[in-house]
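Two entries, shown back to back:
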Amino acid sequence: MDDAFVQAIEYRPVSPIPQATGIPVVDLSPLARMPPSPGAMNALAAGVGAACRDWGFFLAVGHGVPDATVARAVEAGRAFFALPPERKAAVRRTEQAPLGYYDAEHTKNVRDWKEVFDVFPHEPRSLAGAADDELVFVNKWPDDSELPGFRAALEEYAAAMEELALKLLELIARSLHLRPDRLHGFFGDDQTTYMRVNRYPPCPRPDLALGLGRHKDSGALTILLQDDDVGGLEVRRRTDGEWVRVEPVRGSFVVNVGDIVQVWSNDRYESVEHRASVNSEKERFSIPYFFNPAMATLVEPLEEMVSEENPARYASYSWGDFFRTRRRSNFRKLDVDNIQIAQLRKDK
């Protein structure tokens, strides 16, 4: 195995990883009743708030996303990764145009055992820095004649995810005793939300490598579709710091709060550290949807979350600059770990 994939000894997966118990499961089916009753909304908000506070993530069931929409997206992803290497390379992303196919991504400066396809549901977008440091977000779709229905399937799935993400955002706002639409204004047509299709091939040394190294998501929310037949998501349990496996639950999504919600909530909620393991026998697929605000967003604790007794714990930062830095690190091994919100804490 190439040394680029080998994790440091302290970060290598240790087998067997215990299965997590007590993971919160939130049934969103009351949202299907229009309008939902105030009691149902309060109960859902309380459940989401407890999950975000105690775990940093939860399983969402009864979410209303059609099974057929999910199945089409999964089938499209499998069909794409089954293409010959040269056809995938035709939509390969670059450092300046970081959407499309890639198979050499790094997390914490170690190469991940996976290949990915990234798409922006809202595009085109550019993030201008210095004249020679501009990222241009234009989707690179395979030709529809070569992969019929691929684009349509992913766009349908992304639209369903955005609808779900806005509902979840309202529940999070309610759980923090904010007005229901308090956070919606950050997610207009200029949002930096992106969706990824992951393939984790069988790995000859799953004791040395990870499909996705340990990290916390830098955005607002992540909605993850796990491969029900394989699994591999692992989280660092908050109570004892141990790594535990999140077994797939058919028909569910894993929802986790990212660093932005942690900052907005002024540490009421904390993003969860997680990773993806691989195995030597089966390939695994997943589809994460990263719900992110506009490039121009200045991220800081919300004024409603700050008081004299509980001052702001983070300095404000530009999401566009933060996002640019994170995307750059996917392409190269850096001399130091990537920027983290812990570096922005005022009380460090």
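entry 2 starts here
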Amino acid sequence: MAVGLAITSEKGQYNGKMTPFVVLTCMIAATGGVIFGYDIGISGGVTSMEPFLKKFFPVVYTKMNEDTNISNYCKFDSQLLTTFTSSLYIAGLVASLFASSVTRVFGRKPSILLGGAAFLAGSALGGAALNVYMLIFGRILLGIGVGFANQSVPLYLSEMAPPKHRGAINIGFQLSIGIGFLSANLINFGTEKIKSGWGWRISLAMAAAPASILTLGSLFLPETPNSQIQNSKDYEKAKLMLQRVRGTNDVQAEFDDLIKASSISKTIKHPFKNIIHRKYRPQLVMAIAIPFFQQVTGINVITFYAPVLFRTISLGESDSLLSAVVTGVVGTVSTFISMLIVDKLGRRALFMIGGIQMFLSQIMVGGLIAAQLGDHGGISKGYATLIIIFICIYVTGFAWSWGPLGWLVPSEIFPLEIRSAGQSITVAVSFLFIFISAQTFLTMLCHFKSGIFFFFGGWVMVMTAFVYFLLPETKNMPIEQMTKVWREHWFWKRIVGEVNEDRSMEAP
């Protein structure tokens, strides 16, 4: 039977402030985003490097340099090449489901530690790879690392952050992804110039740097008060941690809500079964829809294959990598802006602004490529520059909307009893569609040509309408009181209103 979650804090808000302790611990935990972003940037860069292609994917290398009859859009179409990129995400999908149990039973900290350690091992294997099998096995280890980190880090950040600043703190995860992506592109740009052709090894092996920071840093991370209460009977220790995190001794209202949430959690033996119950329907829909929509914006195929895409429009190897650096800078700066405004403007407003911006820029990119790039020959420098500018506008729109909010909103909407399972579903759906898009993009580019941008633009219209009609505003709402936003929403209250009217009287 389920227990009640009463509102014990005045006006739905708790006491507390942003403390240096919270900032420091969240900065360390957010390094989990750096390893994800670094991998996205590095894999796209090395797959455009000719020495890397010549060693591991000679068929692609031959098509790119010697086959003059093949279409510009089809030069990189290789299932083996896309398997190198996408194998990480199947491994991450499976790992995230296992990570749910680890995060729930043992806490957020052990999952972060396991993620860093697996990624560290994968980076070593990738840098030392002698054949494509070593390369892909290294990618699988990287995927396990990313699966554990992406499952646990957003939860950790949302639980540590004060409600008034939860958006900014959680977006630190996406900012870290941007920093990792930018760092990878800078490293690729530098290592491509190594004359002997082994620069790609440095690019792959340097993933060990953020992985080491995450692994060592996680040893010193405190567990969140939510997790301590959920997994321990030492409530006094949890209360002391909550006081330290909030920077005040007056935490009784929040502490009471955490205990009540934990009481509900302990009655739930099978979170993945319970999450399909009607009272959790809105959260389950969002756990599936938001990561799905985040991927069909087309962002990850553009970031994976940015250098490949730029080479498709006839830029040279070095210019392609430099253009990817530019998009990385633009994305990172835009995510930082999102951190500053998300708790003021709210989640819905940023979703709307970003959606309109992405749609318009994708239409422009698709139109320019359709008009200027044929199956053979090149495109003028001026038009290539214009295409890069619109891609940057697109990346900007994603970086202050669906990029950070795609991780923030799912991590803050789940009740404690299904929080770990819900986050695992979010990560698994995200990785599933990253895998599908990464595995199919080069083939779609070959067949759709410029129409690929209109395809993603159509999805952006759908997802913007979805947010407008079905996603309630969650800014400033304490995470353990989030069920209120569904009971007050025009659509979801029809489904959960009666169910949640008195949770203390219900049985599961």
